[in-house]
C-alpha cells in the first residue's frame, strides 16, 4: 500500500494551518474608542511637532537636501498618524492625506539648483495647510 502524495501534501497543509491558528496568528482584539482616540491624539501631536520642525528648518542657510531630509521626518510621522487614526474620523484623515500629498509634491518639485528663498513661501503655505487639516483631525478625535 503506497501513500497518495496529494493526500499527504493536503494533510501537511491542514496541519500547518491548524498550528498557525493555535499559535496566535489571529487578529488582535480591537481597541476601545477611547484607546483609538488616545492613539490618534498622540500621533497627531507627533505629526504637528514634525511639521513645526520642518518649518523651523526653512532658514536662509538651509540646503535643499536638508529640507528634503526634514520632509522625510514629516513623512514618517504622517504614516504613523494614518495607522493610529484609522478608526477615528475617516473624513478628517482623508483631508490630512490630501494636504500631505500636496505638501510632498511641493517639496519633491523643488529643483536641485533652486535656492531655499525661492521655495520657502510655497513650502510654508503647504505646511500650514497640512497643519490646518491636522487640527481638524485633532478636534474630531477630541484631542
What's the short story on this structure?
The chain is mostly helical and 143 residues long.
What does this structure look like?
With about 140 residues, the chain is mainly alpha-helical. The protein has helices spanning about 5-20, 35-55, 65-85, 90-110, 115-140. The longest helix is centred in the last third of the chain and has 25 residues, at about 115-140. It is elongated and about 50 Å long. It starts with a helix and ends with a helix.
Number of helices: 5
Coarse morphology:
elongated
Q: Mind telling me the C-alpha Rg?
A: 23 Å
**Quick one: biggest sheet?**
none
Helix content, binned percent: over 70%
Low-confidence stretches: 1-28
Order of helices and strands: HHHHH
Name the structural class: mainly alpha
Q: Keywords, please?
A:
0% strand; mainly alpha; 5 helices; 143 residues
Strands, helices and their partners?
Elements: H1 5-22, H2 33-56, H3 64-84, H4 90-108, H5 116-140
Helix pairs in contact: 2-3, 2-5, 3-4, 4-5
Amino acid at each position: 500500500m503506497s501513500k497518495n502524495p496529494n493526500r499527504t501534501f493536503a494533510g501537511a497543509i491542514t496541519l500547518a494551518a491548524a498550528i498557525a491558528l493555535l499559535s496566535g496568528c489571529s487578529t488582535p482584539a480591537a481597541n476601545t474608542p477611547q484607546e483609538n482616540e488616545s492613539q490618534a491624539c498622540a500621533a497627531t501631536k507627533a505629526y504637528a511637532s514634525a511639521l513645526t520642525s520642518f518649518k523651523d528648518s526653512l532658514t536662509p542657510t538651509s540646503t535643499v537636501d536638508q529640507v528634503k531630509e526634514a520632509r522625510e521626518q514629516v513623512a514618517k510621522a504622517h504614516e504613523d498618524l494614518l495607522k493610529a487614526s484609522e478608526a477615528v474620523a475617516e473624513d478628517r484623515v482623508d483631508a490630512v492625506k490630501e494636504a500631505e500629498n500636496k505638501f510632498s509634491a511641493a517639496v519633491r518639485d523643488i529643483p536641485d539648483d533652486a535656492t531655499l528663498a525661492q521655495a520657502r513661501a510655497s513650502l510654508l503655505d503647504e505646511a500650514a495647510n497640512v497643519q490646518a487639516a491636522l487640527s481638524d483631525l485633532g478636534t474630531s478625535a477630541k484631542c
